[in-house]
Structure formats: structure tokens, C-alpha cells
Amino acid sequence: MLHSGGGIGGLFLAVALSRYSDIQVDLYEAAERFREIGAGVMIWSRTWEILTSLGLAPDFARVAHAVPDGSTGVGFDFRKSDQPEEGFSFYRFTLPYGCIRFHRAQFLDVLVDHLPCGVAHFGKRLRAYSDEGHGSPIELRFTDGTTEVCDLLVGCDGIKSTIRAQMLEDQVNIGLQEPVKCSEPVWTGTIAYRGLIPVDRLIKPDGTEHRTIATPMMYCGKNKHVVSYSISRGSVVNVVAFASKPEKAASTFEGSWVTDCSRDEMLSCYADWEPEVTELLKSIENPTRWAIHQLCPLSAYVTERVALLGDAAHAMSPHHGAGAGQAIEDAFVLARILGDPHTTLERIPHALLAYQHVRLPMANLVLCSSAECGRLYEFNGAFEGRDDFWMLGEVIGQQWGWLNGTTPEGNVERALRYTESDIKA
Fold first, then answer.
1. Which H or E run contains 306?
2. Average pLDDT score over residue span 160-179
3. Cβ 126 vs Cβ 163: under 8 Å
4. What is the pLDDT of residues 271-311, one digit of tens each?
5. What are residue 91's DSSP bridge partners?
6. How far is CA 8 from the centre of its chain?
7. Buried b vs exposed e over 352-384: b needs ≥16 C-beta within 10 Å?
8. Residues 6+ apart with CB under 8 A from 204
9. Which end of the chain is more exposed for a tag (fewer CB within 10 A), N or C?
10. What are the helix and strand counts (H, E) for the chain?
């Protein structure tokens, strides 16, 4: 099999599949090396369960903000902050393991360290593929003029996925699907200022530490919110400050999605917020500005021999901190299905349907819930026009129910039962 894209989801799939001796894996990455943009990445207990099951947890524990031990921790401390005077906390989301945080590059490095030699191929940007069916291999055509063939193609090529665009277009052309209006990413109407702060800048001369060093914070306000949490063994604080224009949602964003910006631009956006927030933002020296895009929920992730994974399938806004975890869960389920002894080349189409059967509803649920959380954090959505912050906290808490509604292992078992039902039929 072959898959395109060497981000977190693609790398995890390659690592998971490499444990099956009867599956040859080739990973094609457009860049000249593995790299991740962004700074912080967080996962929750269900993703830690996956890392543990594959024996990866000890290596990830060494680069987490702290060693995960299963004790109850803070997911986020929610605080009303959009006023010059001191704000107040209105909800604290707690759960086993809390939120487990990493520097994104360090997280990627652990996966790279577990990737077998010879699997990764760099400088290979996919231009198109051809799937003629009838037992013939899929042909991959790269922008450098080279070609490769494979039995199964998995698109891990991100929010601007080439594979998604062709897969959906091919489905429309042969009459298997209605035209998909939202196959391309849409702007959410939100921009985000990102920055990293060495922890020592957030400690006053008298030793007083900024609250976010110890506690992941969610500073909320009308049409804006600021997320901050420590990473890299607690030595750095990651900050993401969101500013939204709800009326612009689903409009076209003009310009580069990611760009440098001035510190003054960022600070002026939160000039009237409580001191705890302005002190935090003033400590960022070189912010970047990001236009936050997402996909509309897709109705299909697979064809007979092509599958989408991670952001290529369900790129979501970051308000649940779930993008990396959902990509890993995709890869975990898909690898277990493909590695099952009953999955042969002839049964790949049904194996992919089993993957879709389990992962599409779950990932689309998280995608939609994440978008609603972004609205709630900014006093919009179901809370718009109300001022009962304690009730808002309860509503926000309900949005996180997906964390415990199923388990990754339970979803694998459901998928395997789905494949077994086809064998019996």
C-alpha cells in the first residue's frame, strides 16, 4: 500500500502498519524532510490509550508537559476575561489525564524515530492518480514526473488534499455521488495569533507565576478567546489568541492563510481585556497570524481502494484540541482492519467501508462539536444574548461527551464485526 502525506496522521499510520509483515508500506512526502508547522499539540485520554496499546507511551511521556499518570487533571479552566478589570472563572473542565500537551515538532520526532528505514520517500508531491479497477494497480503521478503503483492509496495529505479533490470528483463523474459543494476548505471567519513564551518571562521577580504555567487556560470574551498551556516539559507556554467575525464564516479568505504579523496588531485586538491576558500576550515577541479553515462534514471517506485520513477527511477547527487525536484514531482503526488476517487484497473495498462505518460519524461529530465550542467560547452559538455563565459552563461541558462515548479499541471491534458480517454473508 502507499499513502501520501507525512504529518502526524500519515506517520502514525506508517508506524502502525509496519508491524504487519505482510503489508508493504510506502509513505510519500512532498517536503524534503518531515516537519510540522505550529507549536503546541494536545491529546486526550482516548489517544493516550492508543499510544499505550502500541507501546509508544514511554517515548511520548518523555516529551509531554509532564508524565501522564492517569490522575484527574484540568482540561481547561474557563474564565471571562473581556473587560479591563479582573475577570472570573466560570467553569473548570477536569478529567482523567487532563489534557496531555506537547511541542508539535517533538511529538512528530517520536513517530519518526519509530518509522522503519526505507518507508519514507521525500520530495514527492502527488499530482494525480489513476484507478482503473479490474485488478490493475493504482498509478500515482508526481509533480517531478515520476510514477509509482500501489494496491491501496491512503490520502493523509492535509486540509488541501489533492487526493480528496480527485476522489470526490471521480465519484461525481461516474454518478455515485452528488456534486459536493464543500469539498474545499472553508474559512470559519476566525483568525488566530500564535506564539511561544519561555516560562521564565511569566514569573515575576517575587516568584509569582502566571496562572497558565500550571493550568491550561481558556480566556473567553465576545467574539474572541485566548488559549494557553505549557508544553516541552513545562519550559514553554503555547498561546493561541482567536478573533472572530461570525458574519464572515464560509466566505473566502483573501491572502495567505499563515503570515507573520506585528505584535502591536495582536495587542490592539485584546487591549481592553483583563491584565492576566494582556500580560500574557505582551510576552509574545514574534506572533504569527493564521486564518482558521475547516471542512464541511463529508458523506464519504473512501472509494474501493482509496481512503482519506486525518485533515484530508475531516479538517476541523482547533477548539476541541482534537485534530491530532482524531487523525491518530483514524490510523489506529484503519491499521487494525488492514492488518486483520481476514483482510486480503480482494477484500480491501469492504475493509475500507468498515473503516468509514466507524470513523466517519465519529470524526464528523467532533468536527461539528469543535465548531460549536468555538462559538460558545466567544459567547455566541446557543449562548448568544445570555449572561448566565454558570449555565454556559454546563453547556460547554456537554460538548466534550464524545471523549467517553466510545473507546478506540471498542471502535476497532465494531469495525472488525462489520467486516465479519460480509464474510458470513
1. strand 306-308
2. 80
3. yes
4. 999 999 999 999 999 999 999 999 999 999 999 999 999 99
5. 78
6. 9
7. bbbbbbbbbebbbebbbbbbbbbbbbbbbbebe
8. none
9. C
10. 13, 18
Please state the φ and ψ torsions of residue 89, each to the nearest 5 degrees: -80, 140
Q: 128-137, 239-248, 304-313: lowest mean pLDDT where?
A: 128-137
> Measuring CA to CA, which residue among 159, 139, 165 is closest to residue 38?
159
- Which of 116, 159, 153 is CA-nearest to residue 137? 153
Phi, psi at 20, each rounded to 5° = -105, 115
Q: CB of 107 within 8 A of CB of 12?
A: no
Place of cell 455566541: 380
Dig out the grid coordinates for 226 from the structure: 485566548
Q: How many of the other CB atoms lie within 10 Å of CB of 425?
A: 5
Residue from 368, 400, 326 nearest 182 by CA: 368
CA atoms within 13 A on the CB side of 173: 6
The angle at the Cα of 16, spanning 10 to 17, to the nearest 5 degrees, equals 90
Beta partners for 96?
A: 72
Q: How many CA atoms lie within 13 A of 423 on its CB side?
A: 14
Record the cell numbers describing residue 266, joined without a space. Answer: 495582536
Q: For residue range 184-209, list pLDDT tens digits in order.
A: 999 999 999 999 999 999 999 999 99
CA 80, CA 89: separation in Å to the nearest integer? Answer: 6
Beta strands in 5-157 (DSSP E): 26-29, 40-43, 72-80, 88-96, 100-103, 120-122, 126-130, 138-142, 147-150, 153-155
Contact of 29 with 120, CB cutoff 8 Å: yes
Q: Among 362, 343, 341, which residue's Cα sits nearest to residue 352?
A: 343
- Give the contacts of 398 (CB within 8 A, at least 6 positions apart): none
How far is Cα 238 from Cα 107, in angstroms, rounded to an integer? 14
Sole residue written with cell 465550542 = 373
> Sign of torsion, CA 187 188 193 196?
negative
pLDDT, tens only, 371-416 = 999 999 999 987 777 789 999 999 999 999 999 989 999 999 999 9
| pLDDT the model gives residue 262 | 96
For the chain, the residue count is 425
C-alpha to C-alpha distance for 407 and 130, rounded to whole angstroms: 36
Q: Which residue's entry shows cell 474572541?
A: 224
Q: What is the dihedral of CA 107, 108, 114, 118, to 10 degrees?
A: 180
> Among 103, 76, 159, 152, which Cα is nearest to 327's?
159
